[in-house]
Design brief:
Layout (H helix, E strand, L loop, with lengths): L7 H18 L3 E6 L7 H6 L7 H6 L6 E8 H5 L11 H14 L3 E10 L3 H12 L4 E5 L10 H4 L17 E5 L7 H14 L4 E6 L12 H9 L7 E3 L1 H7 L4 E3 H18 L7 H4 E2 L8 H24 L5 H14 L9 H11 L3 E5 L5 E5 L6 H14 L10 H14 L9 H12 L3 H7 L9 E4 L5 H9 L3 E4 L13
Parallel strand pairs: 1-5, 1-6, 2-3, 2-5, 3-4, 6-9, 12-13
Antiparallel strand pairs: 7-8, 10-11, 10-12
Helix pairs in contact: 8-11, 9-13, 13-14, 18-19
């Protein structure tokens, strides 16, 4: 059941105050890296119940006249057509979506930066496409892993950051955001500091942090959930050694920030004569830890770890991540003693599937009620569970047919006979369309349709891997869906 464990009012006040303090530290220009996502931070919303996915944009609205935003995307993510885990949208498409969303809030997008560029064809195509839309695009070149981040002398030279484009900005506060992790936001900030220094501008850097929560223990469930969310990036939360040495205080940070800190320190020393920061934790602006209810957020984080475990299993079954990512999640689960069956809809889905001898989906509503659905000749398991849940929320008897077989059969004929689809069963999107058509003349169907918003924050689990269409529909409805890593059939190509 959903319980609020995050004080959003307190957070907005504390975080905005700290950002304004940080801007005052620097004279001419501040590059503020936004950790996590600018929009749609569903990981934070799931892990910290009460946190809203657009909270960062709420803060930025108070700085409209001072701030511009640059969006950073990794060329390798474009080239591999990598998808954002929570939305299933590719990185390049999400860049376009971010620009539209930001502009809808009357905020200024200055440019797009493509990082780790190696001449990837897809990155070249995307650059040309953006420029055709009137978007300014800059390039940051790949620095080999053998040199980055250890070879400070090379990085802080014309062969390192100096080889990158200089990003032209016009406002004192530059927000550096990205569609997803691993995009190169920090590198973009540091590269700009190098270029600004060459032009006589003493630019500063800070990081808008969310995770890990620096003033919570390393093994706190909220911090472990962050590790689970970044398993495919090999990110590791760790005690900040620089902070411990400087202040004799334990603080949690993550490996990439700790690794890059000597570069930042060297750069600030070159610009200012000394660094304003004594540790990676100092770089961050993160007031999350002052605004959470430990018990509620610990429980929510456990559930997020299990979701990530199932989703990583799914990605591995689809060939989208390496075994190392799955192994990391398995180790995390073992070390914490968390079991997959602690996710409420898991046992009901598997038990229903065993009893019915067919694929099944279980859905836990926000009030804790469990609803199930199984595959039939007319409906897929997802569609059945969705209709059953909507009927329950509307107070309609389970035996009532919302869509009659005579209405379903023409749709099946269209799918199989004309569109060449081998699966005649109606998927969730098709069921909702049929239901919407019925709602025009059927009061019961209309009442059921009105319950769709009440599915938000529900949890669902499938006994088999669902189609991308079904997964996407659940996500758009605000339902957190997971699957057993088992295909319904033995075919190599599973389609969509």
């Amino acid at each position: 059941m959903y319980s609020v464990g995050f004080d959003i009012e307190k957070y907005l006040k504390l975080q905005s105050e700290k950002i304004l303090e940080r801007i005052e530290m620097f004279e001419n220009k501040l590059y503020l890296e936004f950790g996590g996502k600018l929009f749609d931070d569903y990981h934070a919303a799931r892990t910290l119940p009460g946190y809203t996915p657009d909270i960062k944009i709420q803060l930025l609205k108070t700085l409209t006249d001072k701030a511009e935003i640059i969006i950073v995307v990794n060329a390798s993510n474009i080239d591999s057509n990598k998808e954002i885990g929570d939305t299933g949208v590719s990185y390049d498409d999400d860049v376009l979506r971010l620009i539209d969303e930001i502009r809808n809030y009357d905020l200024y997008v200055g440019s797009v930066v493509i990082t780790q560029y190696l001449g990837q064809p897809a990155a070249n195509t995307f650059k040309e496409y953006l420029e055709g839309l009137g978007v300014t695009v800059y390039i940051m070149h790949y620095i080999p892993d053998t040199d980055y981040p250890a070879n400070v002398q090379l990085i802080l030279s014309d062969r390192g950051y100096g080889n990158n484009d200089y990003i032209k900005t016009t406002r004192p506060l530059v927000i550096v955001a990205a569609p997803g992790p691993g995009s190169g936001k920090m590198a973009a900030c540091l590269s700009q500091m190098y270029h600004e220094n060459k032009r006589g501008v003493k630019a500063g850097y800070a990081k808008f942090e969310t995770f890990p929560v620096w003033n919570r223990p390393l093994k706190h469930m909220v911090n472990l959930a962050y590790e689970a969310a970044t398993a495919d990036l090999n990110d590791v939360s760790m005690i900040d050694p620089y902070h411990l040495e400087a202040y004799n205080e334990l603080a949690v940070n993550y490996n990439r920030d700790v690794e890059v800190f000597p570069i930042l320190n060297a750069m600030f020393t070159r610009i200012w004569g000394e660094s304003p920061y004594r540790s990676p934790t100092d770089m961050g602006v993160n007031m999350i830890g002052y605004c959470i209810d430990d018990e509620i957020c610990t429980n929510a984080a456990k559930q997020e770890i299990i979701r990530r475990y199932f989703n990583t299993q799914l990605d591995y079954a689809r060939g989208k991540v390496q075994k190392s990512a799955l192994s990391k999640l398995e180790l995390l689960m073992n070390n914490t003693g968390i079991k997959p069956e602690e996710r409420p809809p898991v046992k009901p889905a598997l038990q229903k599937a065993e009893d019915a001898k067919c694929p099944c989906v279980a859905l836990e509503l926000p009030d804790g009620t469990i609803i199930t659905g199984r595959t039939s000749s007319l409906l897929g398991a997802s569609s059945a569970a969705l209709l059953n849940a909507l009927k329950h929320l509307a107070g309609i008897d389970d035996d009532v047919l919302l869509i009659s077989p005579t209405e379903i059969k023409p749709i099946q004929k269209l799918k199989v006979g004309y569109l060449g689809n081998e699966n005649p069963r109606l998927q969730t999107e098709e069921v909702l369309l049929a239901l919407a058509i019925n709602a025009a003349t059927n009061k019961t169907a209309e009442l059921v349709m009105e319950q769709l918003t009440n599915l938000r924050r529900s949890e669902a689990h499938s006994s088999v891997i669902l189609s991308q269409i079904d997964i996407a529909v659940f996500r758009r409805l605000g339902v957190n869906i997971t699957c057993e890593p088992v295909y319904q059939n033995k075919r190599l190509f599973q389609g969509s």
